[in-house]
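Sequence, structure tokens quoted for completeness.
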Amino acid sequence: MDRHTPLGEDDMQQVQGIPCSEVRAFGRGGPFALLLVGALLGAPGGLEAQQLDETWTLTVNGQAAQVNPDGTFEIPNVSAADEYGAGGPGTAPDFLSDEFLRLTGVSTVNGVATYVFSEFFQIAQNQAYAVFPLTFTGDPPPLPVSLSMALESSSLAVDEGTRALVYAALADGSVVDVSLSTEWTAYKTSNPNVATVDSDGNVMGIGGGEAFITAINGGATAVRKLVVSPAASLTTVVGFVEYEDGSPAVGAEVRVAGQLAMASVGSDGGFQLANVIVDGAPISVIATVSTPEGTFSGASGDLQGVPGEFTDAGIITVIMADSSGRDFAFCFPRNFIETPTLTVFIAGDTATTGEVRVPGIGFKEAFAVSPGNVTAVTLPATAQSTQSDGVDARAVLVSAENDVCVYGLSRIAFTTDAFAALPVDTFGQRYRIVSHAALGSSQNATGFAVVATENATTVTVTPKTAVDGHPGSVPYDIELDADQVYQFLSASGDATGTLVQSDKPVGVLGAHSCAQIPVGFNFCDHLIEMLAPVSTWGDEVLTVNLAQRLNGDFFRIVADTDGTTVEVAGVVPASFTLDAGEFAELNLGGTNQITASAPILVAQYATGSTFGGNPGDPFMMTLPPADQYQNSYVFSTPASGFSVNYVNVVAPTSVAASGGVLLDGTPIQAGLFVPIASTPFQGAQVSIALGSHDIASEFPIGIFVYGFNNDDSYGYPGGMALNVK
């Protein structure tokens, strides 16, 4: 007998170990069934064999029942929608539930909770079911707490298709991809005459209008709106793509932000994008081309589409964008004391495939990236580096066929941070660390990590001030082979200003296991940021304070050259001089311009909730120089867990005032921007929804992505050009 098979009269006593009795249930408006089970079952995960008894409460799709002392139970009239048949939405109902159900239960004895859950199943009308086997565990069952869904394109033409991408946030804080039916996700459409969706989330435009696509998994749902345009509302966008020297960007890929239309640039630099949807919103064309020197990108200004005719995009100029690449190496420094959820986010302007590996633990997972969307890969918690002053093999390696951007997220409830990973071809041989003060324990340690990509790499570390085991200004050497990580964490002192040099290029991350910002104000939070080599620092940084925070943000400014003079123009002007490895910490409000006589590194810190208000807690985010901004970015928030999410945008005043910054294809309102000192730039705090986003402008802009929850936060720079000075 198959699992979860409806029981017929001759089958009722044939389920081994499960006392059953024949019961029938009837209902209207959808499948109704009665579930019954009770048994002495083995329990995986190290728990002893479990017996269902009267301490257990079991639930299926909102219907609950108490287990009898003999281990039997009945859950009558379990209901689930039956709006379509096996052929999907639009086909006749077949008296079988559209969604998959799972039985869950909990028993609490002497204050200790034990959980049980079944595999997924469907129910049919007027059938009784025996559900087995059951899994007993000390952790809550792996049911989605919430779902998030994105459509690869939210606008389609008739006979054009797209795909739904669905991610489930589980009770343990992890996020998994549940887009396919094999992950027990079911889909439905609100209007099959406008769009259909199959069991794996493939959506097809059928007729003009709007439809809502719904994903259902384990009782959690997510909905996205889809617009299908008839042929009369389409245009063809034409134009040219060229480099800054005026030569044609042959082979560049061009696409319309938020739509599926894509094309390649010909030998004369021209392109033609057919079936571009005209729905009243401005159209933005994004161009990307990969060369041996790196990735170049650019975007058109706002275009007003002309239905049924050609729309001229003019000339799009592409420039270097070096924070993307094909090979990345980084690590996850140690977070506080609990087990973290480690997630790698991968995005790109062109479709590509690749692989995430952690050779030291034997982890390997393939991935695919679709244009304008972010792919998430969850790593085992053992991928986290745990050494306090030593070497391990926990390097995380990401390789892709085409250029991608990569972000990392280390998440423990109430202590989270994110970072933008840098590609291997941008690695350097001289770095300065930015972190924060240690708080006297290994749980609140200041530090950094170094990642090697070549064998026999010698790393020389010179602490600026005394830290655990190493006096200030006294260098020491570490030997690393490829894919190895050196992590240093100190319960005393402050790693900021530490000099890291190497005889071969390496990647470096500044970190803190859980910092108070400012010191003495709760609560602490994890800090992590991948650092740019000194050779790419700049002498002008523009800042925009974080949204919804009180009392301003903190900033650290680090110098690498003696006698570096620094000027701060903003609400509270300041001027000071720093020597090599020294730093200044400032509490700034509003927007500011920071300039220096020599290259500097600037980090922005969110403050603890008792200082800056809740939701919120500390994070650290490095700020790229103004001359390293890019024209376009693809970025993502975590899939869940953060109630407040923002992107800070720095743009030329003329671009900001004209609505020339497009977020997900929609202009950012000019009224959100405010001046930054006397510079020709303005800054804005823009609220964003959970999920993937793209942002583009005709001229380079800076973006900084962050979010807050109850005593928790994350933040990272959206990208940078990393021009070598």
